[in-house]
Please model this.
Amino acid sequence: MRKKELVKDIAVKKGIPQKDIQEIVELFMDGIKNSLREGDKVTLMGFGTFEVKHRKEKRGTNPSTKDELIIEAKKVPKFRPCKEFKDLVK
Model:
């Protein structure tokens, strides 16, 4: 499902114009992104947790040249679903 399909589905179920739902979904996603950018964790009860993890620097190999290289440390977003979510998709 894409964002457009999600917006349409919610709009049909709630009888609200798609334009309004689109704006709400965008605000929701912006809120999560801004919180993660600031280093905060976002927990949605019954859904899961979004957080930023730090990956350490590591050695890697260029597959085409077989040269060894250093992969820099970086921050990456991570989503951890809650137990109910995991059980639902089993």
Remarks:
- The chain has three helices and five strands.
